[in-house]
Write a structure and sequence with these properties.
Blueprint: H1 3-15, E1 23-27, E2 41-46, E3 51-55, H2 61-67, H3 70-74, H4 79-83, H5 91-112, E4 133-137, H6 144-148, E5 153-157, E6 165-166, E7 170-173, E8 184-188, H7 197-203, E9 209-213, H8 222-226, E10 231-237, H9 240-249, E11 257-263, H10 270-277
Parallel strand pairs: 4-5, 4-8, 5-7, 8-9, 9-10
Antiparallel strand pairs: 1-2, 2-3, 6-7, 10-11
Helix pairs in contact: 1-5, 1-10, 2-5, 5-10
């Protein structure tokens, strides 16, 4: 089973006896923001206010969302059925489906009264040391200086051949095997959308720390922890309406959300969430 299969199976089991909110709306950045850092994420809102984020800049995702009539098809939709479209071959539906997975996860966590702790930094507490081999999966430029400045040796695994090569203080490679010496690995949550997580997890089996980070790292984490992830750093939305407005206008998210860091040892598992949530 792929990681998507496992997460969806956990989600269906966890939500099997709950009355679930339906989809309210899909929110995308304004047209002028498309393909920029201010238009990277969209949000799916459920009728109970739960919000799920998803990355939009992979391939033809935004073009598909603009052309496919997704907005009209979503209002009132079954959120769990929509979540299954994370596995759709259409990248637009993949993004929407993944946002539904994240929204339903937030619905369950809220019902259970579970709130992950705030993060101490944006690199999942990796604490890079001089000479230490650190791996990064997905080239995320804002995080690079925080690792290289500490004297660590950074290897970045990418899918884009045009990014490969030696850089000032780090290496970008297309070969997953290059991560084998890394005892600490940081992966962006886009690996869940571009279907590369399974190969990455196999490549970093020897890592002591395997952190998955990013605003869309909001899915039910049980399967990720089973596959070797030790820490998840995501975005916890505190004001859904304000965050939606920020996404649509390209303004900073500010106090509308906070970064969280969830350790494998501190997560009770979905059965405990279900027991705490009741029906």
């Amino acid at each position: 089973m792929t990681i998507a299969d496992q997460i969806l199976a956990d989600l269906r089991a966890a939500l099997a006896r709950r009355k679930l909110p339906r989809v309210r709306s899909l929110h995308l950045p304004a047209s002028a923001l498309r393909q920029s850092k201010d238009g990277e994420f969209g949000a799916l809102a459920l009728e109970d206010g739960s919000l799920g984020l998803s990355y939009l800049l992979l391939g033809a995702t935004l073009a598909g969302l603009d052309a496919g009539g997704h907005h009209d098809a979503l209002a009132g939709a079954d959120a769990l059925a929509l979540a299954a479209r994370w596995k759709d071959p259409d990248p637009a539906w993949q993004a929407v489906g993944f946002a539904a997975v994240n929204a339903l996860t937030r619905h369950l966590m809220d019902a259970a009264g579970f709130m992950p702790p705030s993060a101490s930094d944006s690199i999942a507490g990796l604490d890079p040391q001089p000479g230490e081999a650190i791996g990064m999966v997905g080239f995320f430029p804002p995080l690079v200086p925080q690792i290289v400045a500490r004297g660590a040796r950074l290897t970045v695994l990418e899918l884009r051949a045009d990014l490969a090569g030696e850089r000032d203080g780090y290496t970008v490679t297309l070969d997953p095997a290059a991560l084998a010496p890394c005892r600490k690995v940081l992966a962006t949550s886009t690996v869940l959308l571009n279907r590369s997580f399974d190969a990455v997890a196999d490549a970093v089996r020897g890592a002591e720390v395997f952190a998955l980070v990013g605003p869309s790292a909001g899915c039910l984490p049980d399967a990720l922890f089973r596959r070797g992830v030790t820490r998840i750093g995501g975005t916890w939305v505190s004001d859904p309406a304000a965050l939606v407005a920020a996404i649509e206008s390209g303004t900073p998210w500010g106090s509308n959300a906070r970064k969280f860091s969830l350790e494998r040892a501190d997560y009770p598992g979905w059965p405990a969430l279900v027991a705490a949530a009741g029906r």
